[in-house]
Every structure is written in C-alpha cells, then in structure tokens.
Automatic annotation (TrEMBL):
The lineage of its organism: Bacteria, Pseudomonadati, Pseudomonadota, Gammaproteobacteria, Salinisphaerales. GO terms for biological process: potassium ion transport; proton transmembrane transport. Coiled coil: none annotated. This is Na+/H+ antiporter. It comes from Salinisphaera hydrothermalis (strain C41B8). It comes from the Bacteria.
Length: 618
C-alpha cells in the first residue's frame, strides 16, 4: 500500500470530534453523562446513518480495533489488588460476618444470580422471536461496564470504602467471566471445540509472564536499570506495558481467541506488578488511551451504527424497550445479594450502577454479528440500549447512594501526644480531611479497651467514612487493638501504626498494618540520605533557618510545565509532589499540574516566596 492510497482526512474528522465532544458535554457534566456516550452520538452524526463524512477506511479500522483492545487493557489495569486482599487476623466467631461482607463473595454471588436471570431472559426473548439464540443474549445481558463503574466510584470518593470495592469487584467479575465465556462460545460456534483448550495456554502464559516479571521486579540491578531508563525520552515502564499488551493481544489472536481477553490479562499483570509506581504509570497509560485510541473506537461504533437496519425491522422501539427492561431487571435481581451486607438503599443503588453497559456489550454484539448469531438490526438496538443504560445509571446511582457515601473520605489519627497533633496539622495543610481521637475508652486491669468499646469510640469519630487510620496511642498493645478493630469490624483498608517495640512487628504485619519503628525510621532516613543526597538533606534538621513547607499549586502559568522550569531559588528544592492521592517523584522532567501539593525545603524567606508564587491564581 502506497502512502498516496491512505487519506488522513477521516482520521482528522474523528480526532476533531474527540476534542469537541468533551467540550460540548461540559455544561451537563454534573448529570454524570459519560463522554463515550457523546462520542458514539457524534459518530452516528458523521457516519453511515448521518452525514457520511467518515467511512470505515483502513487507518480508522486498525486504530479502532486497537482502541478497543487498549480499553480492555486499561480495564485490567484498573484493578487494585492491594485493596482487594483478604483481611487477616479474623476470629473464627467472626468468620460468617467476614464471609457476608467479602467483596469477592458478594460480587461472585451477584454475577451468578444475574447470569441465571439473563439466561431466563434470553430464552424468553427467543420464544417471542426477538432473538434467534438465547446463550449469547444471556452473556450480553450479564455484562457490566467496568469503564463506567470505576470512574463513577472514583468521582464520588467510594473507590476506597468496602461498598465501593464490592461494586468494583462485582463489575470486574462480570467483565472477566463474560470475556472468558464469550471467547469460548465464539470458538464453539465456529466448530473449534478442541481449540477451547487453547484458552488454558493463554492463562498459562499469563501466569508465566507474571512470575517472570515478579522476579525481575525483585532483582536490584534490573530495578536500577528501570529507574535509569524512566526518563522523559525513554519511558521504559510505558514502553514495557505497551509491549506486554501487544504480546498478549497477538498471542490471543494466534490462538484463535478474542484479543480482548489477551489485552485484559496484560492489564491485570501490569496492575499487579506496578507497585508504588502504579498511580504515575496509570496516568500515563490513561493519557495514551483516552487521549487518542479509545475515542476513535467509540466514535467508530457510532459511524458503523446501522439506523436503517434498525428502523426496517419489526417493532424496533418495542425491541429496544424490552431489552432495556431486561437489562435493568436482571441486574436488579442479581444485586439483591448486596442486601446480605448493606441496606436496601445501597442495594438498589448498586443495581442501577451495575446496569451500566458499554464497551463489552458492544464488543459481544459485534462478535455475534460476525459469527451470524445477531442481526445488524439487533446489533443497532443493543448499541442504543448501551447508550440508554450509560445515561440512566450514573444519574440514578447519584440519587440513590446514601449521603454518608458521598462525604469526603477522611484520615483518622489516634493519639494524644505532640507528634500525633503535629502529624494531623501537616496532613490538614496538605488539604486532607483529618479527624483526631485523643482519648480511648479505658481497659480492664491495664489491658487494651474491649473491641466493643473501641468500636463505638471509632464509630463516633467517623470511621465509617475513613480510608486511612494512623495509630499513635501510648502503647503497642493499644495500637494493635485499634488496627484490628479498624480492619476486622470497620473494614478500613489502609492502616499505619507507630510501633515502639520491634518485637511487635510480626503481630502488626500479620494484621496487614504498615509500621514505623523509631529505630527503623532513623535508619531509613540515613539510608535515603546516603543513597540519594539530592533528594533528602540532613542539613534541614540542623540549620534552623531552613524549614519544610507544604504548598499547593494554583498558578496556571506554572502548570503544565516541567519542574526544571520552576526556577527555584538556589538552595530550595522540591522533596516530593502529591497528585490526587499519588506520590510522584520530584524529577526535573515531572510535569506540574494545577492542585498538585509540593513539599518544599529551603530558607524561610525563599520558601515563603515560592509558596506565594505557587498560590497565585494567575
């Protein structure tokens, strides 16, 4: 193919639309309408059912296929395995309660019930002549859009709490199991029964790649090389993630499996291995996907939308109505499982959000058209159902979710000494919502307070809206009891404790608590200074003219520039940068953003000057 045979004009139109749609939707953003809905509508306007400005040429087809695979890759990357780890240290008497509130148990049971209801709905739709085959329709109705659920939970501050994690896991299970079943179903329809075993080959490759990458992550020379290559020009982690995604996409395609499964597994591997770099890496990968590839996919879905085929079918609007009722009905029944752990309002809110379907339902319908199970008219109806569900679900969830789940997530500092008060003040300077507990209920005979009393005390302090507990009580026994109650009774994910006696370290770690020892803290500080003298300077602790200051970037003239262009006074440095809860390395190439929180060190006068400069609005 010669370069003269390729026209970039259709791509230009699609990219222009991907820029214009978010701008056009910004006035109605408060209603929670996903941008992808606008992208599909824009594609309809310029595509086969509209103005015919964009056709399905070769360039757009390639970018669209990769855009959808990349969307599945980001769906796998969205899973935070550190937060989904099972709780430890539970007593046997609490095992039943733990089982009822376990996100995997609730999510798995909800999917099983939903799948059974979807199968019944599939047979009903087949009996009335709306669909020709019940099995694929059951899979279509079982799907949930992780790409809609995760952003809604993030926006409302629910991603960290047990309720949000349970919703996330339910969406994850629905997506992952559906992808597996659709891949197997497609292979069975084309007569590749024996080739079903090839899915196991892909899963074995997944395990092998994960084990190999895990070893490399623990190898110190390999990590030094990765760090050295993580520059603005090399971006080795981004390149490695993209290469891994393409490896699994190509492997799945070579095995005759849907490439979306390979892309999803690659995202899961990156999520498990990224560790402390996950927030930065995800931001970069999100920018690549949502900035270019993924909008092309959704706009091309609208371009290919076959409105004439839908309107020429028998009773098109009746078909859409029945599909919408079935789509929301099966999720309503399946979400009743949430009542085991949550109230009725949370249960109904969960059913509305899990009813959102978008990328996967469109992909499954496309596969159905390809293998001859779904007609073009039904495919168009399914796309409209996806759009309708994405319009209704976020708005309904916002109205139904209890107000206590809409509160800003807080940190709870427990302790009554000078250090705990200083920590609380510093966290508040960073813009965190911090509550403190300075007095614990008394214990019996010098023992820590009972679990019941301590639970009531923590509940009164607002632990139900807390995502991080920092235990700095007088004794290690008290801190251990605080952490156990916070984890086992109130399901707080992030626990930190000040441990005075290193003999307690193993007990805290068994309770999945991150610890700091006075002796260890000193060693870690000295080690950091020895390994990286440019980042931490011991002189800060000796020279009273120097101080550490927290400052928030509000100056839009500085934003979107690299840190090296901040032109700091000599002797003033940025120790770290916090962005939306993630800690970024203060590298010269780090691009600053509005609302970044910078930790500065320098003389009082210089730090005051920089702080005022950062705080200026213009």
């Amino acid at each position: 193919m010669h370069s003269s045979d390729i026209s970039f004009v259709p791509l230009l139109v699609v990219i222009a639309l991907s820029f214009a749609v978010p701008v056009a939707l910004s006035p109605v953003r408060r209603f929670g309408i996903p941008v992808v809905v606008g992208e599909i509508a824009a594609g309809m306007l310029v595509g086969d059912s509209g103005l015919h400005l964009v056709s399905q040429d070769f360039v757009l087809q390639v970018l669209s296929v990769f855009g959808f695979a990349y969307l599945m890759f980001l769906s796998g990357l969205e899973i935070d395995f550190s937060g989904l780890a099972p709780r430890q240290g539970l007593r046997a008497s609490k095992a039943g309660e733990r089982l009822r509130r376990n996100p995997f148990v609730i999510g798995g049971a909800a999917f099983v019930v939903t799948a059974l209801c979807s199968l019944a709905a599939g047979f009903y739709l087949t009996s009335v002549g709306l669909v020709g085959q019940p099995w694929l329709m059951a899979l279509i109705l079982s799907t949930t859009s992780l790409g809609v659920v995760a952003p809604v939970l993030k926006e409302r501050g629910l991603i960290e709490v047990t309720y949000g994690q349970t919703l996330l896991v339910a969406a994850l299970i629905a997506d992952f199991v559906t992808i597996l079943l659709v891949s197997g179903y497609a292979m069975l329809r084309v007569g590749a029964t024996v080739d079903l075993l090839l899915i196991l080959v892909l899963l074995l490759a997944f395990v092998a790649a994960w084990r190999l990458a895990e070893r490399a992550r623990k190898n110190l020379p390999a990590q030094r090389l990765m760090h050295a290559l993580s520059t603005a020009t090399s971006q080795i982690r981004v390149r490695g993630s993209m290469a891994l995604a393409l490896v699994f996409i190509a492997l799945a395609e070579s095995l005759g499996i849907e490439n979306i499964l390979g892309a999803f597994l690659a995202g899961v591997i990156v999520s498990m291995l990224s560790g402390s770099e996950s927030s930065v890496l995800r931001e970069k990968l999100d920018a690549i996907g949502y900035g270019f590839f993924i909008p092309i996919f959704f706009i091309m879905v609208g371009v290919k939308f076959d409105l004439p085929a839908l309107l020429s079918s028998n009773s098109p609007w009746e078909t859409i109505g029945v599909l919408v009722v079935a789509a929301f009905g099966v999720k309503l029944v399946g979400s009743l499982v949430f009542r085991l752990a949550f109230g009725w309002r949370e249960t109904f809110a969960a059913s509305t959000l899990l009813s959102a379907r978008l990328s996967l339902i469109i992909a499954v319908a496309a596969i159905g058209v390809e293998i001859g199970v779904i007609s073009p008219a039904l495919d168009a109806a399914i796309i409209l159902v996806a759009i309708i569900s994405c319009l209704i679900s976020p708005i309904a969830f916002s109205r139904l979710a209890p107000r206590r789940y809409r509160a800003v997530q807080q940190m709870l500092v427990i302790g009554d000494d000078r250090d705990s008060s200083a920590l609380a003040r510093r966290l508040e300077q960073m813009g965190k919502n911090v509550h403190t507990v300075t007095e614990l209920p008394p214990g019996d005979n010098g023992n820590p307070p009972s679990r019941a009393r301590l639970s009531e005390c923590l509940r009164a302090a607002g632990i139900e809206q807390t995502q991080t507990v920092i235990a700095m009580a007088d004794t290690d026994e008290d801190n251990l009891q605080i952490c156990r109650v916070a984890r086992e009774v109130h399901a707080v994910r992030r626990l930190l404790a000040w441990v005075r006696d290193p003999a307690y370290n193993a007990r805290f770690r068994a309770a999945d608590v991150r610890i700091v020892n006075p002796a260890y803290a000193k060693l870690l500080l000295l080690e950091s200074m020895a390994l990286d003298t440019g980042r931490i300077d011991g002189g800060v602790h000796e020279d009273e003219s120097h101080e550490i200051r927290i400052a928030k970037l509000q100056n839009r003239w500085i934003a979107e520039r690299e840190l090296r262009h901040l032109h700091l006074p000599e002797g003033t440095r940025v120790l770290r940068i916090e962005r939306r809860g993630a800690i970024l390395e203060a590298e010269p190439s780090t691009v600053l953003r509005v609302n970044d929180t910078l930790t500065l060190v320098g003389t009082r006068e210089d730090v005051d000057t920089v702080t005022r400069r950062l705080a200026r609005r213009w």
